[in-house]
Amino acid sequence: MLTRDPVFQVNTCLWLVAKSTPAKDGNRPFFDAGYRLRSLGAKLAFSAELRTQLAQRGWGPNPPEPDLLFHHLASGDHLVLECKASSFSRESSTAGQARKLLVSCADSTTAVGIDGQAVVVYVLPSEDYPLQAATLQELASELTEDGFLTAIYGVLGLKIDDEGLWVELRIGQDSSPHLASLEDRFLIVAGDPKEARPLYLIPYDPTAADNQSREEREYCHQILLERCYVAAVQIIGTADVPECVVIKGDELFRKATYGVSDKWHAKEIGPLKSKIVHGMATLLNKKELQGRVTVNNNQVELLLRDEDDRDLAISRLLKANTVQLALKASSGQTDIDHID
After folding, report:
1. Of 78, 94, 284, 326, which sits most exposed with the smallest number of CB within 10 A?
2. What share of the chain is helix, strand, coil (3-state, %, to 5)?
3. Is 291 helix (H, G, I), strand (E, B) or coil?
């Protein structure tokens, strides 16, 4: 089920705070309410006192790293979003992370570094809402009895029906007016349920890949590779030859994610950029271009002597079999077949 896929969930959330919208009616409720994307995969902060309390209970001193932070610019409030394929019980291993989120976000100034309220929101299929809401209520009660303050919490349910992709936010307690106004059901992508997937601003997420089906993982990886290769073609195509063209991994990712990668904090992004840059260099460094392609600090340096070199480099990138590359990346292989 698509609503249980973590990359689908993250991208649905990203469109909630995007300036443009895939919604047919142009509705942008979260954006218009003043929410903006602050980060993906950023680590929250603990106070020294809370860190000690957690360590004493054997919960570990490391703060949680929620999938997304939405910042309400006017108030300083944050939505702290964590995507899950399904609901979970208080006895599950996942409940440990939920406990940390609830107690850390109670001290929002420390957790997100800005005065305001931090609301914990779990993102999952709408049919899992009842169990997830009950689990969060049980965990909050347990933590309160144990002497902790807990954050406000809620659930963002995702559903695909004959009309398209819907989201519905439900908050478990009284919340600020700007958040209360969003406790409703909103259509994100209208039309055929088979076409309910929004444009993926983040096409592939290495932190979520293990939780995807093989088909979804390869599909997402292929999209990322295609966008990175097209971005490289644009860079090469605008070069004024002769030139030593520099293709930076950061720039490729910025273009491939429509700028969202600038706010992506996950430590796994660095190795992914390196793998794509090295694979691109291997593809280019053959026959006529051999010896004029180097990799330095996550960037490809390509020496183009003339228009023929440029045309050859572009041709090789456009002919790259991204389906094959995605399959090899998923299987751990790094070789790239010869492309003439």
Report:
1. 94
2. 45, 20, 35
3. coil
Task: State the distance between the two ends of the chain, measured CA to CA, in whole angstroms.
Answer: 40
Count of alpha carbons within 13 angstroms of residue 115, beta-carbon side: 2
Is 50 exceeded by the pLDDT of residue 332?
no
Q: Are 207 and 43 within 8 A, CB to CB?
A: no
Strands 68-72 and 153-161, sheet pairing: unpaired
pLDDT at 109: 95
Question: E strands along the chain, which residues?
Answer: 35-40, 68-72, 78-83, 118-125, 153-161, 164-171, 185-190, 243-248, 293-295, 299-304
Which amino acid does the sequence have at 165?
Answer: L
User: DSSP of 229-262, one letter per residue?
Assistant: HHHHHHHHHT--SSEEEEEEHHHHHHHHTTTGGG
Q: What count of other Cβ atoms lies within 10 Å of the Cβ of residue 318?
A: 12
AA letter at 311? D
Instruction: Give the separation between CA 7 and CA 207, rounded to whole angstroms.
Output: 10
pLDDT at residue 195 greater than cutoff 90? no
Residue 240 to residue 286: CA distance in whole angstroms: 22
Return the pLDDT at 306: 95
Prediction pTM value: 0.91
